Structures are given as structure tokens and as C-alpha cells.
Amino acid sequence: MIIDVHGHYTTAPAALGAWRDLQIAALKDPGKKPKAADLKISDDEIRETIEANQLRLMKERGSDLTIFSPRASFMAHHIGDFETSSTWAALCNELCFRVSELFPDHFIPAAMLPQSPGVDPKTCIPELVKCVEQYGNVGINLNPDPSGGHWTSPPLTDRSWYPIYEKMVEYDIPAMVHVSTSCNACFHTTGAHYINADTTAVMQLIQGDLFKDFPTLKFLIPHGGGAAPYHWGRYRGLAQELKKPLLEEHLLNNIYFDTCVYHQPGINLLTEVIPVKNILFASEMIGAVRGIDPQTGHYYDDTKRYIEATQNLTAEEKHAVYEGNARRVFTRLDAALKAKGL
């Protein structure tokens, strides 16, 4: 089985975006505030968007199951207040759950949280609990910068995040550390802000001792880990100067990297530098980079091709990247598959 651990509902029906536009407009004119019940999306509309897009590409490229969460750039936690984010997260999470209900063999949901700048992270717990217990979510997306590129939140090692970590440990679910839209003109959303955040998360975790308090906590650092694998020697050296343990002990029992790296040399480097046990297959298809690479004639985000072509992985190691590691890290996913006899 080939499990893609990083998929977003980037092709959601247009009605979702239209409802969001009304919600944002109502921040200036509360009389225009839409109700959640005003959003009407039929099962047929969901089927059409999935069958023509994600599911079609999964079949063409040879992947079987996607961990599916709301569109990352649409989370936009910097907009409005907690109530704004709470309503928006609930709608988006419900849509991903409906996708998983309509296509149970191909999609399983992960949740966005109703984060809001300056608001205690523990306010996200009710949505997290609902998504795990009612929707069967196998993971969450955690935004380390709800401010949208201004980085006003404390680092991930700060105790203010601990209520979420406690729930993660209780449910044994990992968090993908994933920012949303940048409203800072200095940082392009997908080209800079995303990669900056991945790199920043790794360094924050090096500087702290979070995993001493939460030895079973699990983070997935997306987009191949940002700059971290490319500069692994720098981070090993910085950890040494900070009197931290070797990174194998300090980080690599708790953090994992996905394969959303869109060229062969990048995957070759990732699989050479990072231990195989810490790499999970992912594509983030129909995401940040949707075009065809003129050098190869294939889509940039067809990451399975890079895994197949690398000389750094044996057949057994490719199986770990494609399936084994995902089932080990996402234990609720593993349990759901085993319940189906898979």
C-alpha cells in the first residue's frame, strides 16, 4: 500500500470559498455574517471535485490512500478572532470527513485547528476531540504562526502549547507542523513562508527539551523538512554548541519528514541525510506546485517517481517510506486499516 500522508482539499467546491468571503466581509459589517447552515454542498459536488482531481491523480500515479486535511493556505488563522476560526475550522473539517465517508478506501481525515493569534491554544481542544472521536481523524495540522507571517506566537517548546500536546499524546496522534497564508509581503506563502516555518520548527525543537516532557509526542515536518536536511551539519553543530544530545537522540525519535520535495536531487539528498525510519511518503498534490517540469515531462508533485528512481533506498526501505513508517507514526491510521483487514 502506498500512503500519502500530506493531502489537502485544495479542490473543494466553490461554495466553500464563497461562504468564506462572506464571513470575512462580515468582520466589517456584522449584519452580513453567514450562518454555518448557509453553506450547502451536496455529496455529488464533493464526488465531482475528488473524482476529477485527487482521486484521478492517485490512480494515475499509483498511490492508494491519502491523509486528507483542509486546504492549508485557506486556514488563514490571522483573519478575525477565535470565533471566526472556530466556525471556519468546523466547516472545513466536516468537508474532509465527508470526503472520507464517500471514498473510505482512498481518504482518511486529519484536522485543522481553530487557532487564532494571541488566543490560548487550549481553546482548540474541543474541535480536536470532536474530530478524533466523531470523525475518526488520524492526525492534526498545527500552525506554529497563527499571525500569518509575523511570528507573534511563542515557540513550539513553550508551555502554552502543552494542552494540545497532552491531547496528542492521549490520542496518540501526530501533528503536521504546517503554517497557512502569509500576510507579510516579505514572505511568499508557499515559496518562503512554508519552508521558513518547517526550518524554524526544527530549530525550535533543537533549542528546547520538549521531548523530555513528552517522550511519545510526534511531529511531521512537511515539505521535506524545509532547509533542515540540506543543512543537517549546521543543525548538528548548533545542537552540540547548545549542549544538546546528538540529533538522533534529541529529535529523531519524535520528528519525521515527508517527501514533498519536487525534484530528484532533493529526494536523493533527503534519503541520504535523514534515516529511512524518519521519512514518510507524501506529495501534497494539487498544492503549491501544480505544473509540469519541462526537464522531465512529468508533474513536479508526482513524488512517487523520485522515490522509485533514487538509488539510496532498497526495496525494503521503499516499503517503509511508502507504508510502514506511516502506519507506525499514524497509529490510528494503522488501526483503521487493520479493522478493514489491511
Automatic annotation (TrEMBL):
It holds the Pfam family Amidohydro_2. Coiled coil: none annotated. Residues 3-330 form the Amidohydrolase-related domain. It comes from the Bacteria. Keywords: Lyase. This is Amidohydrolase family protein. The lineage of its organism: Bacteria, Pseudomonadati, Pseudomonadota, Betaproteobacteria, Burkholderiales.
